[in-house]
Amino acid sequence: MNKLIKSLFTGLLFISLPSYAGDMNFEAKENIVLKGKISTVKTSKKYRNVEACQALCESRSSCVAFTLNTSKGSCTILKNVSSEVSNEDSISGIKK
Q: How far apart are CA 3 and CA 7, in angstroms?
């Protein structure tokens, strides 16, 4: 049951990402963790949704991408992207 709730929550987060990401010039990547030089990792409740994580990235001129890990509740913003790794608990975005 917990996996079903997590899947629904992740799906709802991703549904909201494309329209918001389009406004902020991000390319959405569902179930992907982006790897690269980390700028910041936030684990507070304030950054546990796609919109907040993406806004954090947008607010930093050095940020080129973000990854939200929905199971850990962490937002990671990156200075560069070196690779992508599949992860069902993550939603990422790369600046276009």
A: 6
H-only helix segments in the chain? 2-24, 50-59
User: Smallest Cα–Cα separation from 55: which of 91, 24, 83?
Assistant: 24
The DSSP call for residue 44 is S
CATH superfamily of domain region 2-95: Hepatocyte Growth Factor (3.50.4.10)
> What are residue 73's phi and psi, to 5 degrees?
70, 40
Q: Tell me the pLDDT of the chain (96 aa) as tens digits.
A: 555 444 444 444 444 444 444 455 899 999 999 999 999 999 999 999 999 999 999 999 999 999 999 999 999 999 999 999 999 999 999 998
pTM for the model: 0.75
Domain ranges of the chain: 2-95
What is the Cα–Cα distance from 30 to 15, expressed in whole angstroms? 10
